[in-house]
User: What shape does this take?
Amino acid sequence: MAAVAFVTGASRGIGKACAISLARAGFDVACTARTMHEGEEREHSSTVRKRDTRPLPGSLESTAAEIEAAGQRALTVPADLLDRSQLEAAVATVLAQWGSIDLLLNNGRYIGPGHMDRLVDTPLDLLDRHLAANVMAPLALTKLVLPQMIERGHGLVCNVTSDVAWTDPPAAAGEGGWGLGYAISKGALHRVAGVLAHEIAGTGVSVVNVSPGFVATERIAIDMAEFGFDASTGAPPELIGRVVAWLATSGAAAVWNGRTLEAQPMARELGFAT
Assistant: This one.
């Protein structure tokens, strides 16, 4: 049986690219996100000043089709990171149907208002959503998958971190910088790997931060120009997918356990990018 990957935020962007790369590397892939079918409307404005529910390109359905085109099994398990019962049901479905989860990629994050707002303009409940989706949801999923990984003596948890976890913005939110909710939630998630690496030492399981850098995702291209971000300068999501697949299949995960792998420099080192 093929190894099984569980990828959050797999309907588009980095998550979709990673899911497809993992399939090409021989993984069966379970995909979760909110958008099941193309054309679904979701709130994706980054600011409280306006709503934007235009459909974004991508869906679990289209990601699954590409996984199957790569010759691997795909399983779609729609779930909202803000609903823990949905996450629990998604993991239970994968384990019931496929028997194991060998790789958990915590890529999905909160999408919505508060991302590009200043603190004085941000309702506190939006900061709660950032923390719930970007920190507590990955922790909930990790708790669900770790026991069966440890029991089998192998597994990998990848947390998609961000430079905002350790660097200050160049300007205020909306002027080329980013909001506090994104920064504090990514900062909290960033600390998980270093702590868990000690807890799981000797089990054969690794926990690694993967920092993608600036990536030209669909949402960056559609939503973020007005906030000072130029998608044309970003790396293609497929590049990050190739690095994640390399990490999962090369034996390098044990070396990077508890550490942060910066995907774009590693891609250049591996010859994936010039």
Q: What stands out?
A: The two ends are 35 Å apart (CA to CA). The chain has one domain: 4-270. The longest strand covers residues 205-211.
